Give the backbone structure.
Amino acid sequence: MAYPADLKYTKDHEWMRVSGDVAEIGITNYAQEQLGDVVFVELPDIGRRVNPGEAFGSIESVKAVSELFAPAAGEIVEVNPLLKDHPESVNSKPHETWMVRLRLSDSNATGSLLDSDAYEKLVST
Amino acid sequence: MIPYAGWDMPVEYSGISNEHLAVRTRAGVFDVSHMGEIEIAGKNALAAVQLISSNDASLLQPGQAQYAALTTPGGTFVDDMLVYRMAPSHFMLVVNAANTAKAFTWIHEQIKTVGDVAAIDSSSRYSLIAVQGPAAREVLQPLTAVELGDIGYYRFGYGEVAAGRATISRTGYTGEDGFEIFVPPNVADRVWQAILDSGRSADVIPCGLGARDTLRLEAAMRLYGNDIDETTTVLEAGLGWTIGWKKGSFIGRDRLVEQKERGTARKLVGFEMIDRAIARQGYSVVSGGRAIGVVTSGTQTPFLKKAIGMAYVPTELHAVDTEIEVDIRGRVSKARIVRLPFYSRTGV
């Protein structure tokens, strides 16, 4: 699976799709492969403010739990209702299944994230 | 692939859930050659096995197996094992991979007091392939002249599977019907492939360690290192049924008799989460902010699709339907104690 060029990536294997000052956040194909079958996603409350690197939720597979880290500062404005009953969407469509929508405090904060080429390199080594 | 007890083993081939469901609805094939085999033979073989095992091996006919604890003097587990009686004075103990050396050293030392008996670690002579699931028999039958229907549960027979010399045991670690096939390592590849080829039209698939763990958990089978170890007694672990009280003295018997009379301070229970959360090994069972017990195994399993687990709790809380609380990464979540096993193929 290719890593879409319109997404930005973190070293924690998350992606952001930015539209104006709102970013959708999900986990990458590499992450879902490592995790295995996702059975449960714990998402934050709407209105929660997060700082970069802060844990804001978790994603659980049969064999492990992984925390989700905020790639940028902002406020959670939406969580994906699909994940309550269909957590497996994360495995089948990792780059389309967003978990939270974050209103960014600073729209330029995405500069330090990796582009698809850099991320691809990171996970192929 | 991951390193596991000195072996290189797959966690999964095609997804843990996929493999787990295959075993519950069709059949799956596991390479469990990492397991250890220790053979005890000689004039006093029975006496030796009676000494080191919690169960009564005199109840075994040749061709019969039983689950037992390999006990410490404290009545806890050096390991759990299957005891096979090959002949009146010849037994094979199948032990966990990670405990093979430890178990062998222990057994070798303990049976010295019995005399006229020898123990050998014969693990390198056996590969072990498990075929598990409702379709296991129909997948395996074309590969052997042995009439599999004649091998009852916890019984075993000898013959050939895919032209490889085999001991075929009707046992397993999944809670399904199935067979565990002991073959010499030099034919293991051929036997493995023959089973998968035979099962192809029934969509029988290879299964790894991940599904092995989720399947055994649903069936409430204990896992050494999680639910049982050298600090847990046979009674605390809810395995009193493996104790042959009538057979006479065995290592740990006195301590277990004491516990039987006085009661245990804690018990291993099965639980189901009430709150939407998943409890995992090591999480504390809490009450009023204090840790009172510990989760030994837990996950959300693919067939039952529930977050289940096993935990040690104070004995006064062990009754079915008791509500307990588990600290799940800082959040106290409610669970309910349930009857074990979580899953039974006979629907009991």
User: Anything to note?
Assistant: Residues 219 and 344 of chain B are 6 Å apart (CA to CA). The interface with chain A takes residues 11-12, 15-18, 210, 213-214, 276-278, 280, 299-302, 307, 329 of chain B (CB under 8 Å).
